[in-house]
Amino acid sequence: MKMEVANFLKKNRNKLMDDWIVEMKQLGGDGPLHVISDDKFESISREFFDIAVFNIVDSENRYETKVERFAEQVVRIGWPLTFLMSGLQVLKTLIFDWMKEENNYGADDLVKLFHEIENWISPLNRQIVEAYSNSWEKTVFLQKVAL
Amino acid sequence: MKMEVANFLKKNRNKLMDDWIVEMKQLGGDGPLHVISDDKFESISREFFDIAVFNIVDSENRYETKVERFAEQVVRIGWPLTFLMSGLQVLKTLIFDWMKEENNYGADDLVKLFHEIENWISPLNRQIVEAYSNSWEKTVFLQKVAL
What we know:
- Chain A is mostly helical and about 150 residues long.
- The first copy, chain A, has a single domain (about 1-145), classed as Globin-like (Orthogonal Bundle), CATH 1.10.490.10.
- Chain A has helices spanning about 1-30, 40-55, 65-75, 80-105, 105-145.
- In chain A, α1 (about 1-30) crosses α4 (about 80-105), α3 packs across α5 and α4 runs antiparallel to α5.
- The radius of gyration of chain A is 17 Å and the shape is globular.
């Protein structure tokens, strides 16, 4: 199932990314994300998408550095962590529904798909939360030193 | 499907909680959670479980205050946010597998179950992350004032 998900992502990257960005924009609404330009919003979203997908398509661990750098960037810009979490959840749902539709999966394959997607998104979720926490901890530490 | 999940949770609360706590303990390993006693670990885990389940069983919004209070408590004790996120993910997987097994769901019902569980866990996930962020932000703010 892992290869099936990876191939699906490779094959449908562009269309999936477009659908996902439409949902991300709706999620963002008039909140704090509204202050950045549409172009910037799209370029960051595309980077986020590629980091998420890279994780399953490629087996290397290079993506850890990528996630960290990405998290630092979005913390600086002021994207809330909850927004990234929702983004991953939307992505998961899009892939689940789309793959089910395309392959007409039965119950057993759906269970496998559910686990595969969970196993893929969880470490990414965890890493983004960690990068955010680190960035907070760094601030608290630097302030403590300055006190 | 919402009622089915709610009834399932009410009916199997004790057994599900026991299974979940076993997995939480394994997840915790020898990490920072190891410093608190087994009793304390269990009582916090049970509180976490009830907050998660309360969210779907009860329709009231009282749980928001509960989540906030819970988050403040675990931040104080030093439970990492990633651990709570993993906890919710384990819970999701346990419920999905168990309900599938018990009801022998076909493909259509599994898709509904997937969405129902996602829709239930996502706001909770979001709220815990927010409570954590608030707690961090408060610290940063208080330090800034003291500088």
